Structure formats: structure tokens, C-alpha cells
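forwarding from the other thread:

> can someone predict this with NAP?

sure thing
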Amino acid sequence: MGLVNRITLVTGASRGIGREVALGFARAGALVVLAARDRARLDGVAAEIDALPSGAADVVELDVSDPAAVRRAIDGVVRRHGRLDALCNNAGVSSAPGPVAEVAPAAFAAVQQVNLIGLYACCHAALPHMQRAGYGRIVNVSSGAAIMCNAEQSAYAASKAAVNALTAAMAKEVRTANVLVNAMSPGSVRTDMNPTSSVPPSEAVPTAVWLASLPDDGPTGRFFRFMQELPMLPDIDLDWSSR
Ligand SMILES: NC(=O)c1ccc[n+]([C@@H]2O[C@H](COP(=O)([O-])OP(=O)(O)OC[C@H]3O[C@@H](n4cnc5c(N)ncnc54)[C@H](OP(=O)(O)O)[C@@H]3O)[C@@H](O)[C@H]2O)c1
């Protein structure tokens, strides 16, 4: 029960992986604040959590692409619950497939606004509270796309590679305040974003719970799947010695 009495926030908790992670956090003993845009779905997940033995949920209607709304939401969590122990930045969107020559810059930017700027805004708002408390765990839901860099998925791959870089940089800034920041790939799992996968989204839960409840000497600035470390960078040949 690694999250007993922890105050946690999961973005994109209305469905898919975020819903499963929120249920996983609740089963591990946390109070879970559920954030996303769809209030009715969030209320449904909150009811599922409230039905668990000692389940406790709170709901925040939030569009993570609005940094001012993110600030209000996270300050509100700390006002209501006293602190924010763990943040799971899961909210994300995929990009319509297409080559760079055809995907408009505005469509590229729209993906970054949720997957990267939204995640940054959540960290920007949460970190001062965590640093003041001397405790924090941040779990950034990235993707294998960050390292596979598939053609015709440039907006999505770039957003997730940037999430990995942000994770590594941020982790160095806050290590001394006992704030641990890691990224994870949930794997290819069946959700609205990826309806053809046969793997249930609950597969992602153990890694998220583990990263949200790391001991003080746990890893930081790393990228994991099934609790195993993955490379942070694309597997490309960077021959620095010849430059
Ligand atoms: N499924 C996979 O195979 C897979 C693989 C690798 C990585 N991932 C990553 O896992 C995360 C969750 O994906 P999923 O597969 O569960 O997708 P999903 O089923 O489409 O769910 C996406 C979640 O993000 C929320 N969301 C989207 N835009 C938002 C915004 N602007 N503000 C707040 N919430 C927003 C949605 O809620 P509302 O619509 O209610 O706002 C929903 O709860 C994403 O970061 C995704 O990139 C998924």
C-alpha cells in the first residue's frame, strides 16, 4: 500500500490509461484528484473510486492546455487537501498521421499544446508546492514513440521525446528537494487513442503506482516500462567523436 494517505492528481483521468491509473492509485491507498475536460466521465470514475474500500476521489474539470486553469486547479488541490504528493501527467492526444510536408504547423502545435505545454504547465504549478513540502513524485506518461520516431507521427513523437528531455532536466533541478520525476511508457494498450490493441490499459498501472510511490532514494530523471528502464533518446547513431 505504497500510496496510503497520499494526495495524488491524475490528468486525463476520465477514460483510458488515466482512469486505470486513478483506480490503481486509489487501490494503493491514495486520495485521487481526477482531472480532465469531461465532467460526466470524471464523476463516473469518482463513483467507481468511492465504491472501493476506503476509496476517496475529488474531481477537477480541467483543460491542461490552459496554463492559467492548470495553476488554479493545482492551487485548489493544495488548498483543499493540504498538499500534493504525487502528480501523474497522463493527459494526451495523438496526431493525425501524415508527413511533415503535409501536416500544417498549427496541427503540429496543437499536439504540443496538450502533450508538452500542458504537462509543463502542470509541473510548473505543482513543483513549488512539492519543493516547499520537501516531497513529491511526478510520473510523466510518455510513449515508445519518443524513441521509435515513426514516420508520419512526427508531432506525437516530438511531443513525447520532449517530455523525456523535460523529465531529465527537471529531475536534476528538484532532486535536492526530494522531488523525483520520471517518465514511463504505458506500452501499446487498448483505449480510444489506440482501439486496435488487444492489451488492456490496466497493464500500465503497476509502473505508474511504483513511480508515484518511490522511496526517497529511488530513481529520478529516467524512462520506464514494466519498471524496466528504457533509453531516453532515440536509437540513432550520434557520432560526436567525429565533430
Ligand atoms: N494507448 C496507448 O497505446 C498509448 C501508448 C503510449 C502512450 N500513451 C499515452 O498515454 C496517455 C493516455 O492515453 P490513452 O491511450 O488513455 O488516451 P485516451 O483514451 O484518448 O484518453 C486521453 C485522456 O486525456 C484526456 N485529455 C485529452 N486532452 C486533454 C486536455 N486538453 N486537457 C485535459 N485532459 C485531456 C482525455 O480526457 P477528456 O477528453 O475528458 O479531456 C482522456 O482522459 C497519453 O499521454 C498517451 O499519449 C498511450
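The two ends are 51 Å apart (CA to CA). thats all i got for now
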